[in-house]
């Protein structure tokens, strides 16, 4: 059984909350504006939580209204470490347009899709859970 099942969750920092649910790491972003330093903190804490294990991640970005170019770039490159797939849960209209722009302008090392509801996002991510 994977180590992360025994983690004391949820965990949070100034920018996001992290919680495991059925083999998927759920990251709920708190801030309306994400800058480069926020991206560094979010990824650093996610990697610490994952403890070297690759896994699918659900990113609930409904609260995000803006993300800087440097933060987008960091998320798409260094921020992809140990991800097997990413599902973005968005809310209309701003976070949906931000995530669409992000997916179309930044290269992705892992399968990534946009969803408007968590249940559909989880179904997508369950196909990427590793034993």
From TrEMBL:
Pfam short name (any one): DUF7793
Residue ranges of domain DUF7793 in the record: 18-128
Name of the protein: DUF7793 domain-containing protein
Organism this protein belongs to: Gelidibacter algens
């Amino acid at each position: 059984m994977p180590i992360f099942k025994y983690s004391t969750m949820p965990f949070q920092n100034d920018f996001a909350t992290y919680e495991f649910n059925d083999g998927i790491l759920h990251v709920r972003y708190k801030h309306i504006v994400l800058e480069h330093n926020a991206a560094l903190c979010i990824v650093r804490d996610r990697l610490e939580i994952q403890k070297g294990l690759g896994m699918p991640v659900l990113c609930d970005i409904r609260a995000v209204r803006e993300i800087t170019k440097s933060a987008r770039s960091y998320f798409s490159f260094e921020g992809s470490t140990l991800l097997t797939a990413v599902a973005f849960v968005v809310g209309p209209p701003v976070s949906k347009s931000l995530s669409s722009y992000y997916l179309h302008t930044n290269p992705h090392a892992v399968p990534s899709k946009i969803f408007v509801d968590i249940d559909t996002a989880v179904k997508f991510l369950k196909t990427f859970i590793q034993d």
